[in-house]
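Board notes (copied after class):
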Amino acid sequence: MSLALDPAAQDLLFREARTANAFTDEPVTEEQVQAIYDLVKYGPTAFNQTPLRITLVRSAEARERLVQHMAEGNQAKTAAAPLVAILSADNEFHEELPTLFPAFPQAKDLFFSERAARENAAGMNAALQAAYFIVGIRAAGLAAGPMTGFDFEGVRKEFLDDDHTPLMVVNIGKPGPDAWYPRSPRLEFDQVVTTV
């Protein structure tokens, strides 16, 4: 069976896509990031929640502050990437629900009045949006280097606030020489899918 997406696009988004560890110095523009967001914002979430928040780290001063919170093995590539994004979950996302989910505006108070429920929903749906964002970076012809090797609390204190939970840091740019590690194995269909 063939997929609706042509094979070149399948390769770009999935088969040939890997975490990039080195980039050229070609800048990533605001227009590119806007185009990525304008595509991926349509990815589905529960109640049309939009808890993902993206902090673009562009200035040298901010980059230096971020690098100090990265794991040692991630510091050099984060320092050198053309653009770095901190992806976080907004735990107060529910304030936007009356606008984002007008079919059921009372969902804001009915389901998300408690902080614990909001944090759970924000984490799950922002992670889903983060995956869309990574695929969107690839769709733009760029490479993504998503990482969770950093001091989460340090990044939260340095760049966010108590209402935002860091999810990952993503290096973004055109892949440089030796950007890719060898492809790691994947589980086969019958190892993952069960029919009941």
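Comment from the instructor: The radius of gyration is 18 Å. The mean pLDDT is 96.
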